[in-house]
Amino acid sequence: MSAVSRAAVEAVLRQYTDPYLNQDPVSAGCVRAIEINGGQVQVRLELGYAAALFKNGWAQMLQIAIEGLDGVSSAKVEINSVIAAHKAQGQVPSLSNVKNIIAVASGKGGVGKSTTAANLALALSREGARVGILDADIYGPSQGVMFGIAEGTRPKIKDQKWFVPIEAHGIEVMSMAFLTDDNTPMVWRGPMVSGALLQLVTQTAWNDLDYLVIDMPPGTGDIQLTLAQKVPVAGSVIVTTPQDLALLDAKKGVEMFRKVNIPVLGVVENMAVHICSNCGHAEHLFGEGGGEKLASQYGVDLLASLPLSMLIREQADGGKPTVIAEPESQIAMVYQELARQVGARLVLQEANSQAMPSISVSDD
Q: Which of 5-19, 307-321, 347-361 reaches the highest mean pLDDT?
């Protein structure tokens, strides 16, 4: 029986690609330790994204592969997630107690942006992250309803300065709806709305969050510009439907984030197909392949494609979005996949920015 070497173990690991980082664990820099004691091998990997529902299966696959090495009697692979704070835009100072801010945006209303934001936050939490959600849709806040928070609920005030976010389903939630009457419209001009958004972001006592998901209002106006200039956003997700009009507005959203140097992590396509509950017939009511075309045009990924489903709407309206209402359902698994994709793309975004060489010009 030949002695097992570190190089041999690494060679096995290089044969397997992390489906979210699109690299093997060695090339991705995930290997933290390889310990060899005779025929016993212990490997410790560290992922930079939340992956509680994925890592056990991934570890088992790698363990079986290592145990196939000549000379290995047993192997153990331990995988942990350690989420770092990733680079945000320009000179914007970081936010205390929040590592990463993810903006969920759309070019127009009615495409399922708020539902996507709620399920993304819940899916990130199920993957083991500490998560908060900020409802920045000042004119039409809906996260309080989606998280089942009773009308009239008000946040507590800490040290006469901080709003204490309301916790629901393990998520810290903050919304303008908690500070106003549900039946009173926000008849505010742009500067007032922008000021309110900044107060909500900076004067909420978030509790050591790995991710803060911001549910943006639709469009590309004052609130979006304020967010880009004053709030440290690590990445954005664009939500659209396959409909041509929605795609036209979604393109504007992608362009806006690029102009303000906020990375677009990818596109989520909602209402992609309707499947009849009686006969099972599939019909593309809003067109077909629009999200994929948009992603391809701008060189970003289609992160998820979700059906037009009455259940998604009913569960969100009922205060228990799909991820917690039916956590083992096929639709919930799509949201879990979305959460892992978003977390991994933040890691890749950081790696790519660090890999860029510096160029110096001299007179020589």
A: 5-19
Q: How far apart are CA 277 and CA 284, in angstroms?
A: 15
Query: What whole-number distance in Å separates Cα of residue 315 and Cα of residue 147?
Result: 10
Written in H, E and C, the secondary structure of the chain is: CCCCCHHHHHHHHCCCCECCCCECCCCCCCEEEEEEECCEEEEEEEECCCCCCCHHHHHHHHHHHHHCCCCCCEEEEEEEECCCCCCCCCCCCCCCCEEEEEEEECCCCCCCHHHHHHHHHHHHHHCCCCEEEEECCCCCCCHHHHCCCCCCCCCEEECCCEEECEEECCEEEEEHHHCCCCCCCCCCCHHHHHHHHHHHHHCECCCCEEEEEEECCCCCCHHHHHHHHHCCCCEEEEEECCCHHHHHHHHHHHHHHHHCCCCEEEEEECCCCEECCCCCCEECCCCCCHHHHHHHHCCCCEEEECCCCHHHHHHHHCCCCHHHHCCCCHHHHHHHHHHHHHHHHHHHHHHHHHHCCCCCCCCC
Give the chain's mean pLDDT.
85
* CA-based end-to-end distance of the chain: 60
Distance CA 129, CA 81 (A): 9
Mind listing the domains of the chain with CATH numbers?
6-81 (3.30.300.130), 98-346 (3.40.50.300)
- Res. 197 pLDDT band, cuts 50 70 90: confident
Rg value, the chain, Cα: 22
> What b/e readout covers 233-242, taking b as 16+ CB neighbours within 10 angstroms?
bbbbbbbbbb
- Separation in Å, CA 333 to CA 90, 163, 188, 252, 272: 35, 33, 39, 29, 16
43 touches 66 (CB < 8 A)? yes
Query: Global pTM?
Result: 0.89
> Measured between alpha carbons, how far is 18 from 353 in angstroms, rounded to an integer?
20
303-335 per-position pLDDT tens digit:
988 887 888 889 998 999 999 999 999 999 999
